[in-house]
Write a structure and sequence with these properties.
single chain; 204 residues; alpha/beta; seven-stranded mixed β-sheet; 7 strands; globular
């Protein structure tokens, strides 16, 4: 599938796709933004719910991808969902790209794990803060790689208005330690382009 634009989040969407279990019935993309990832997940899942707390983002997602029969777009906050738009224990697969650093990490992961069905999988592509000398070295290498990729795929592009941005507070090490403590058995890996990968399978 050709990319309408490129940035660090879009770069790792293919990684998210490879981690979606075969035969997924109900997928949820949290913080869906303009809906690009949700549209890709729809090719592999029976139904995808694309959720964002920003009405502007959902309007943009509907404009760009509203023609997909198996994708539902909903304005909802996974941390505070009094209307029950995101039912607990329903989803076989949840993706959250550049989302968790907008909230308290423990609160965010607990909310997401409640939404998973037993045996379901959570995949997070997240951001963290450089703090140690090693962090800055890896970050520098990532900047070089980013420049090369921009030459190949085009400039980094904002997906549209209404998609908020926020700087991370936790460092890479703090995020990894919290993930290990809160999500036993999870896999955490730092990625090159200022992102990390977190994968957790909910016990069946």
């Amino acid at each position: 599938m050709s990319q309408p634009y490129w940035n660090h989040n879009v770069h790792y969407q293919s990684l998210v796709m490879t981690l979606m279990p075969a035969g997924c019935q109900r997928a949820l993309d949290i913080g869906c933004g303009d809906g690009l990832l949700a549209s890709k997940l729809a090719a592999r899942a029976a139904h995808v719910t694309a959720a964002d707390r920003s009405p502007e983002a959902i309007a943009l997602a509907c404009e760009r991808h509203g023609g997909l029969d198996n994708v539902g777009f909903v304005t909802a906050d996974y941390l505070d969902d009094p209307r029950g738009l995101l039912p607990e224990g329903k989803y076989d697969f949840i993706s959250a790209v550049a989302v968790l650093h907008h909230a308290d990490f423990a609160q965010a992961t607990q909310a997401l794990t409640r939404l998973l069905t037993p045996g379901g999988r959570l995949v997070v592509i997240g951001l963290a803060k450089n703090r140690s000398p090693l962090d800055w070295i890896i970050g520098g290498a990532g900047q070089v790689a980013s420049r090369v990729l921009r030459l190949r795929f085009g400039p980094k592009t904002d997906p549209g208005k209404g998609v908020p941005a926020m700087d991370p507070v936790l460092s890479w090490g703090e995020t990894a330690r919290l993930a290990r403590g809160l999500l036993p058995g999870s896999r955490f890996r730092r990625l090159l382009l200022r992102r990390y990968l977190l994968v957790w399978d909910k016990p069946a």
